[in-house]
Amino acid sequence: MFNFIGTHKIGILGDASSGKTVFLTSLLWNLEEGKLRLGATHEPPTDVKIHKLDDPHAFDYAGSKRKCKNSNKWPAKTTSEYSVAACSYKPHTLFPRDLTFVDIPGERMADLLIWQCHDYAEWSAAMIQSWRESDTLSTCMQAYVELLNHPQARKEELAREYKKGMRELLRNYIPQISPSTLFFNDGKLEKMADIDDDAWLENRSIWRHGDAACDFFPLPPEWEESAEDLYLSCWRNFNLYKKTIIKPLFSQIGSCDHFIICIDVLGILALSPGAFLKTKEELEHFFTKITPGFWGDLWNRIGGNPPRIAFVATKSDLVYGDNLQHLRNLLEDLVKRFVTEKITFGYFTCTAWTSTKEGQGEARNQAIVSVLKEDENGTLRKSEEVLRCPPLPAEWPDDWDGAEYARLTMDMLPSVINANPPRQTGIDAILNFITGDGKE
User: Which domain holds residue 68?
Assistant: First the structure.
């Protein structure tokens, strides 16, 4: 798409906790209600339209708004291959803006290797080789790899050990869970408690296509002769998965002009260094495997703008005072190795849906959040709490105790103050950056 005439296709990437769906809902809602200040004049745009798409992957904007307004709950996350939203507006410039957003679940990025590999044999070899190159991966997948030395092993045994290995990767914050559908059940992301249940290992299919179980897992080339039927079954199911799941998804990603990458920096702090390394690896995959190296040169040659990528630290309303600047510093420290001259980068902190207010007095520079608590009769009632976030580090330490920041991931209600649309900070700047409309 040639963005010099105001048409942009924007991918929104991020992991399961980064708030992509909330971000997109708030962006469209605030745009529709004239609350965004866009363009060089920083005024509300005119001729705003949120388009209804005749597309099975259409983003449920109306449903997300309704859920937030009527039940005071966060919008449901995207768990299909992707979802698409479209809007148009005129930001007091010559040309209107036509924007398409593609919301991509972070879990699906684990299937990048399937997209890259020519066929099942190449994917199998690449997966098995990757396990050999890492001590952690080798430990997680050890039982499955040992089973590969026994071509007489039954399909059920192999599937069970493969699922066990993938579960161990998930526990170690390693994003190589492929096929990614292994951890989606009827379109919903599996809960860790369910995955820990041994019944899950016995009953859960690796992939279902419609009502049919279409399991596949990596097998070495010698199995093509020693276990021909199983090898061909995995080959066929791999091809079907690539055709029906992977090709539409990565075709969408490949056609995006720009990207907004949402990163839950506070959530990473609340977990462990393992979550930090997982995020870095996912970003590494994106910038080395998906973003074409020739993009910048191509766009400059045809007279358009180079691709833009906005790195966004979400949920910034959970911190105040010096912690807010430290949040931005941590974001930049996390992604600085991926910055190149051929792509225009921006760094932002953002609150897509303000769910806190700043404390006063002894609670100064702390967030006040709304939560549900049981009263003396066991009835859930809304109450306010001080979040009590400790000082954030100015840069990523080599090690830290995630428990210190655990309250940053506590369940809280979407809004302290009822707002229609939700109050936000940062979306205006992000949209201006991505479209190039913020230039004076």
Answer: 8-107+250-435
CATH number, residue 384: 3.40.50.300
Total structural domains in the chain?
2
What number is the average pLDDT over the span 24-34? 95
Angle at 117 between CA 113 and CA 120, to 5 degrees: 105
Residue 354 to residue 422: CA distance in whole angstroms: 7
Q: Which residues have a Cβ under 8 Å from the Cβ of 65 and sit 6 or more positions away?
A: 25, 29
Q: CA of 324: how far to CAs of 23, 33, 185, 328, 366, in Å?
A: 19, 28, 37, 7, 11
Contacts of 302 (CB under 8 A, 6+ apart): 2
* Residue where a domain stops, chosen among 213, 248, 283: 248
The answer to whether 19 and 420 have CB atoms below 8 angstroms apart is no
pLDDT band at residue 358 using 50, 70 and 90 as cut-offs:
confident
Q: Which residues pair with 184 in a beta bridge?
A: 189
Reported pTM: 0.83
Query: In the numeric block, which tokens belong to residue 180?
Result: 């990614």
Q: Dump pLDDT digits (tens) for 221-240.
A: 999 999 999 999 999 999 99
- Return the SS3 of 357: strand
Q: How far apart are CA 124 and CA 155, in angstroms?
A: 16
Residues 289 and 356 in one domain: yes
- More confident position, 19 or 299: 19
Q: Are residues 20 and 151 in the same domain?
A: no
Nearest C-alpha neighbor of 421 from the set 180, 166, 68, 113: 68
Question: Which residue has tokens 């991509």?
Answer: 104
Task: Output the CA torsion sign for 50, 52, 56, 61.
Answer: positive
Average pLDDT, integer, range 117-146 = 91
Q: What is the mean pLDDT of residues 148-162?
A: 92
pLDDT band of 242, cuts 50, 70, 90: very high
